[in-house]
Structures are given as structure tokens and as C-alpha cells.
Specification:
The structure holds 2 protein chains of 2 kinds.
Chain A: E1 12-18, H1 22-30, E2 38-44, E3 50-55, E4 58-63, H2 64-67, E5 70-74
Antiparallel strand pairs in A: 1-2, 1-5, 2-3, 3-4
Chain B: E1 21-25, H1 32-40, E2 44-48, E3 55-63, E4 66-73, H2 85-95, E5 106-112, H3 116-119, H4 122-127, E6 133-138, H5 140-145, H6 152-159, E7 163-165, H7 174-182, H8 199-212, H9 222-231, H10 236-254, H11 256-277, H12 282-299, H13 302-318, H14 320-333, H15 342-347, H16 352-358, H17 365-374, H18 383-394, E8 399-401, E9 405-406, H19 407-432, E10 443-446, H20 454-488, H21 503-510, H22 512-515, H23 522-530, H24 537-546, H25 555-564, H26 567-579, H27 584-594, H28 598-622
Helix pairs in contact in B: 10-13, 11-12, 11-13, 12-20, 13-20, 16-27, 17-19, 18-25, 18-26, 19-26, 20-27, 21-23, 23-24, 26-28, 27-28
The chains are: A alpha+beta, B alpha/beta.
């Protein structure tokens, strides 16, 4: 498992590095993609390459190209709402 | 300067009258507008911030104990780093750096209490603007209904600002809001807040505040899960999407048509009464055919606009629109746009005017401009009478695909396809050149499903109707008066001239060399001029010129056209109508929505050149 795009529906991981420029990374963080945050892939959107992700109380659809630039790592243990790492 | 200026010396000069303004701010989809509507009721108006396309909603609120305040409903923000024009203006107003609006005296920050641990991050950011701020934890009813809980007082103590739990939908908790607006709500002790510009740290702080205020997030909504499973199902999802599209499309036509006919006959009847009342004169002609006819030609669009915005309102408020945009994303991306452009473009098959207004749902400014630019190229319903007349006159009905498709239907279908292709090609060209945006990550928030309320739907409809009537109304009225004038002078012996001898006739004859390359004569030339007001007007004009019943089904008119125009010139005329922006309402609304004349002029010119070139080519080929 390398990036958010590799996450299959129903699985959960932890947000890692955001491979974007400053402006885009800030917006992703404002929407909840903060390194250390737990994120789960909910489903694929039909007719396209969007996937719906659930994190920090909201649902966000991303194109696979965007998701592939959000690195993720496996979740350490179940039930961690937001980890401490920066 | 009047002496009654409020104490606080705002950085830019306060607007005249210097009433206290309070801004309502917060993230998208937290019920800001519901909150705003709840407080201001019908005392609100919508204008544009000067020079830009963002809407400024202001409402006045009378307070039981104190002077009235002006409430500003700011566009949604998710942080201090704006990406769109809407977000930028919201932050500029709060910071006091907007030249259009002085810094408000206070702010109400609305947060969604069902997702507090994430949303509290905005509190230090908004408090950082240094104006008294009330934090309203909205949707308190939803929170407790789903087993969640929060201690608003404990939150207040930790953020150092007053905090209330409210339900803008039900109106609970609003008494505290009133107190805050009156300035009688004592703020808690200020506290030290996290350093800004470090989102992870702000988020950790927010999580801590929520925890210490014994915040229990609500149980995830089962219904939301179930609805998403259906709406985004690999098979059912697209089918539901298709059904919604067909429903919207159909009702714009079928539901609106009887209403439009009713408006039409109402205008006709009242015109008849006015005609009896007024003495015969040139003024009567101006009032009846110019002004009243002009009013009618604007009001007739209202049913379509209302029905369309009712549907868009339901789709948007319920949360389905975001899912539809997700499903449409792939196909829209093929022409360089994104999923959110889909609904506006669909609407433009009925009428480009509401479609262009609906393009507000497109967040990216450049995508929105591209959507507005191509919307009038799709085949709107005003083109149908023109197509119907020309097809009936020039295309013999022959079966093409057995009983399914005849030549006439095929030509009509071809005209739809032509408009669609031109729209796609134009979008692609715009998005690869002047409206090219740097490839930004596409992030589409899917808001929680909610029942749309009658209240917010009616405010939305009222709002859109007022904007349309005011903007399109003034331009259309002016245009119809000018066109009436052209067709009615010179008056001789108190009688209007035959159209060939009128000013319009002279202009038609003058521009004949221009329309001749398309195989058209001066009579059609006049029709092209009068149809600038609205496309279908050409049918009536041609009827007048040829002196016969002006109806697209009229066989006499069809015969007359056949005797003067060739097959190729009829095709050229249809193609001209497919591409040309023969609609002043659209021009007026594009001017309003883009905040200036640059885009409507560019659009008009582009479409005219396209129409003329394609018409010329068609005449050469089919001539």
C-alpha cells in the first residue's frame, strides 16, 4: 500500500506525505487530509475514476490522479481518531 | 459627514448611514443561509460585490433592544487560504481589507455541531481577525437526535468567545444570538489560542477542545450510508442519475409549457384591455407593442426559471447534486470541465438564462466562465419554433430508419448535435487556451443528506426571480423598445409604416449585402435584427413581412418562404440560428454573472462569427 489510490473500498489507512505544492497541500489539509489522520476508502464512484473517502467526519471524492499523490501508511491499531505525528 | 457615526473607527470608511454590520461566516454546508434567512426573513437583498462576480447578500434585522443591524451572509470558507473568488471576498471582508465593504463590527461563525472536532479549527482563525465573534454550533437538533452531545459553555471557556448551540432550521437557541447582536452577551475571559498557519497543530487543538467540552460526535447516519449505496451504486447509481436528468429535463418543458402559455395569454389579454383603454397614437403603439410586449417577453421565461431552480434547490439542499457531479465528472472532463458543470449545461437545453445563473455551483472560476460561455450554444427551447418553421417548409418528410426516424426528425436531431458539438469543441478550446487552469487536484465534498426545507427553497426561488426580472428585464425592455421604434417609424398620417418602409426595413435592405452570402434576402435580414431580442421573434416578423398569419405551423408562411429562399439558404439560416447568440436576455445575464461587458461581448462576437461562417459554408455546400 503506497498511496490513497491503492486503498480498496472498505479499508482504512493513515494519511502520510502530501506530494503537492504548498497551495494544494494546504487545501487538502483544510479539508482534513492532515498527516496522521485516519482515512478510509468508502466506494468507487460509477462511470469515472473518482473514489469517495471518509475522514475527519466528512466525505470527499477525489480523482485517482489526486489520490495517488497522497501517500498513506497502514493503520497502527484500530480506533485511533487522530494520531500525534505532524 | 453625518455626525451619527458608530464609535468603532473601521479602517475603510463605513457605508453611508453607518449601520452596524455583522458578518455570518463559516464552512460550506453548515446552514449559514438558513441561519441568515431565519434572522432576516424577507428583509434581504442580493447584489454583486463591485467589479466581481460574487454575490453579496445583505439583510436587515430589527432588534428588540437596540438599533437594527445589517447582516452579511459571506461565502463559505474552509480556512484562511482562499482558492476561489468567493472565498477570497469572505476573508477580505472579515479582515477589513475589502475595498467594497468595511470590516464588520462583529461576526457570527457558524459550525456544524455534528462534526465539531474538525470544524473548531476555524475558531482561532476567525478570532484572529480581531472582531467580536459568536460561535454558533448549528444543527444541534441533528446532533442530539443521533445521540451526540456537546457542552457549549465548556467550549466557550476554552476558546474565549461566546458559544451557543442553535438549530437554524427549527429556530432554537436564536435568543442568545439576538443578545449577541444587541451587544449584551458578556464574552468569557480571552484565552491563548494556537498559532495560526499550522493546520495540523490547529486541528490537534480543536480535537482537544472538543474532548474537554465532553463532545460526543453523533452516530453515523444510517440513512446517509444507505442513500450513498444506492446513488453511487455501479448500476443503480447511473440509472438514478439518468432518471433525475430526464425528470428535470422533461419538467422544464412539460410543466413549464402550460404556465408559459398562461403567462402569454395573460399578457395578451391585458394588452387587449389596454388597447381598448388607450387612444390611438404612436404612444399607444410604444406602450402596447414595445413596453408591454417587452415585459411579456421577459416574464414568459419565469416559469422555466422557477421550475429549474426548484429542482436545483432540491438537488443541492438534499445533497444529491454533489453525487450527481461526481458521476458526471468523467464525461465533463473530456472537454476540460468538471462534474459540477453538468447541471448548468443540461439546463441550457431549456433556456440559457437559468443555466448561466446555475453555473454558480461551479467552484473553479475559469471552469465557470467556460460553462457560461458555451451554455448558449446548446439548443434552447426558443430555437424550436424557428427550426419547426424552416424544417416544415424545406425538408420533405421521408422515412430514414423505417418508422422510427424520419428526415425531419433527423434534421432536428442534427441541429441538436451541431449545438452540442460546438459547445464541446468551444469548451475544449477555451480550456486549452485562455481559460486553461493549472491542473489542480479535484476535491469534491459530499455533504450529508438533508431534507430540503420549504423555507430555504422559497427564498432561493424569490431571489433568482428578482435577479432575473431586474437584470434581464431592463435590457430586454430597452431592446424591445428600440426594435419597436425601428419597426414603427416613420409614422405617416398616424399610421405605422409597412415593415418594408420602416426604419427596420431600411436597415434590412442596407444589410442585405451582408446576408446575401448566406443566400438570404432583406426580409430575413429584418428578422435577424428583430430576433436579437429573442430568437422566436423572427417567426412573427416574417409573418408580418409576408403579411400572413405568423405561426410556425402556418402553411401559407411556409409557401412564402419556399418561394423566396433556396434549400441551401434555409439550411444556412438554421445553422445560423444554431450558433448565433440571438438573445438579449442571455447577454444581460452573462453581463451580470461575469461582472462586466467583456465576456458577453466576446461571446456575442464569437457566436456571430461562428454562425456566419458556418451559415456561409452551408449555403455553399447545399446552395
Amino acid at each position: 500500500m503506497e498511496s490513497l489510490a491503492d486503498l480498496s473500498p472498505g479499508t482504512t489507512a493513515v494519511v502520510g506525505e502530501l506530494r503537492f505544492d504548498e497551495v494544494d497541500a494546504v487545501r487538502l489539509m483544510e479539508l482534513g487530509f492532515i498527516p496522521g489522520m485516519s482515512v478510509s476508502c468508502q466506494r468507487r464512484v460509477p462511470m469515472g475514476d473518482l473514489s469517495v473517502y471518509q475522514l475527519d467526519g466528512t466525505q470527499i471524492a477525489l480523482r485517482s490522479e489526486t489520490a495517488s499523490r497522497i501517500r498513506v501508511r497502514p493503520e497502527p491499531a484500530a480506533g485511533v481518531e487522530n494520531a500525534k505525528r505532524d | 459627514m453625518p455626525s451619527a457615526i458608530e464609535a468603532a473607527p473601521a479602517k475603510p470608511q463605513p457605508e453611508q448611514g453607518a449601520r452596524r454590520t455583522v458578518a455570518i461566516c463559516g464552512p460550506p454546508n453548515v446552514g449559514k443561509s438558513t441561519f441568515f434567512n431565519r434572522l432576516t426573513g424577507l428583509h434581504q437583498k442580493v447584489a454583486n460585490y463591485p467589479g466581481i462576480t460574487v454575490e453579496k447578500r445583505i439583510g436587515r434585522l430589527e432588534l428588540p433592544n437596540g438599533p437594527p443591524v445589517d447582516l452579511i451572509d459571506l461565502p463559505g470558507i474552509v480556512g484562511l487560504h482562499p482558492r476561489s473568488e468567493d472565498e477570497r471576498i469572505a476573508i477580505d471582508v472579515l479582515r477589513g481589507t475589502s475595498r467594497a465593504t468595511p470590516q464588520p463590527a462583529a461576526a457570527v461563525l457558524i459550525l456544524d455541531s455534528t462534526n465539531l472536532q474538525a470544524q473548531l479549527r476555524l475558531v482561532p482563525e476567525i478570532l484572529g481577525f480581531g472582531i467580536p465573534t459568536l460561535v454558533a454550533l448549528n444543527m444541534a437538533d441533528d446532533l442530539s437526535a443521533r445521540g451526540g452531545n456537546v457542552d457549549a459553555q465548556a467550549v466557550a471557556k476554552q476558546v474565549g468567545a461566546p458559544v451557543v448551540a442553535v438549530s437554524a432550521r427549527l429556530g432554537t437557541g436564536m435568543d442568545k444570538v439576538t443578545k449577541f447582536l444587541e451587544g449584551t452577551l458578556a464574552p468569557p475571559q480571552p484565552v491563548e489560542l494556537p498559532v495560526l498557519n499550522n493546520i495540523p497543530a490547529e486541528r490537534r487543538w480543536a480535537g482537544g477542545v472538543a474532548r474537554r467540552a465532553s463532545y460526543h460526535p453523533p452516530e453515523p447516519s444510517l440513512w446517509g450510508r444507505r442513500l450513498d449505496r444506492a446513488f453511487l451504486h455501479p448500476v443503480a447509481g447511473p440509472l438514478i442519475f439518468l432518471a433525475v436528468v430526464v425528470l428535470v429535463f422533461q419538467s422544464i418543458f412539460t410543466l413549464a409549457v402550460p404556465l408559459m402559455d398562461a403567462v402569454d395569454s395573460l399578457i395578451g389579454t391585458t394588452a387587449g384591455w389596454l388597447g381598448i383603454l388607450l387612444p390611438d397614437s404612436m404612444l399607444k403603439g410604444l406602450l402596447l407593442d414595445g413596453v408591454w410586449g417587452g415585459v411579456g417577453s421577459v416574464v414568459i421565461f419565469l416559469p422555466q426559471i422557477l421550475i429549474l431552480f426548484l429542482f436545483i434547490g432540491i438537488l443541492e439542499d438534499s445533497g444529491y447534486l454533489a453525487r450527481a457531479a461526481a458521476i458526471a465528472d468523467r464525461s465533463m472532463r473530456a472537454v476540460g470541465l468538471e462534474g459540477r458543470s453538468f447541471i448548468p449545461l443540461l439546463s441550457s437545453y431549456a433556456c440559457a438564462v437559468p443555466a448561466i445563473m446555475a453555473a454558480r455551483t461551479v467552484e473553479n472560476q475559469r471552469d465557470r466562465l467556460a460553462t457560461i460561455f458555451i451554455a448558449p450554444l446548446t439548443t434552447c427551447s426558443a430555437r424550436l419554433p424557428v427550426y419547426a418553421l424552416l424544417i416544415a417548409a424545406f425538408i420533405p418528410e421521408q422515412p430514414l430508419l423505417g418508422p422510427i426516424l424520419g428526415t425531419r426528425a433527423a434534421v432536428l436531431l442534427g441541429l441538436y448535435a451541431l449545438g452540442f458539438a460546438a459547445a464541446c469543441a468551444t469548451a475544449w478550446v477555451l480550456k486549452s487556451t485562455i481559460l486553461k487552469s493549472k491542473p489542480a487536484p479535484f476535491m469534491l465534498q459530499l455533504p450529508a443528506y438533508r431534507w430540503p426545507t420549504l423555507r430555504s427553497l422559497s427564498y432561493r426561488l424569490l431571489d433568482r426571480s428578482k435577479i432575473f426580472l431586474r437584470r434581464a428585464g431592463t435590457v430586454i425592455l430597452l431592446t424591445t423598445i428600440v426594435l419597436w421604434f425601428l419597426a414603427s417609424v416613420p409614422y405617416t398620417d398616424g399610421e405605422p409604416p409597412a415593415i418594408g418602409d420602416s426604419l427596420a426595413g431600411s436597415i434590412g435592405k442596407t444589410i442585405e449585402p451582408l446576408v446575401e452570402p448566406l443566400g438570404l434576402n432583406w426580409k430575413v435580414g429584418i428578422g435577424l435584427i428583430t430576433s436579437l431580442a429573442a430568437r422566436e421573434v423572427i417567426v412573427g416578423t416574417l409573418g408580418t413581412i409576408y403579411g400572413m398569419e405568423a405561426d410556425e405551423d402556418s402553411p401559407a408562411l411556409q409557401d412564402a418562404l419556399r418561394s423566396e429562399l433556396s434549400f441551401g439558404s434555409a439550411i444556412a439560416l438554421m445553422i445560423f440560428f444554431a450558433f448565433a447568440m440571438q438573445c438579449m436576455s442571455t447577454v444581460a445575464i452573462v453581463r451580470r454573472e461575469t461582472g462586466g461587458w467583456k465576456w458577453p461581448i466576446a461571446q456575442f462576437t464569437y457566436m456571430l462569427v461562428l454562425a456566419y461562417t458556418a451559415g456561409f459554408a452551408a449555403f455553399r455546400i447545399f446552395g
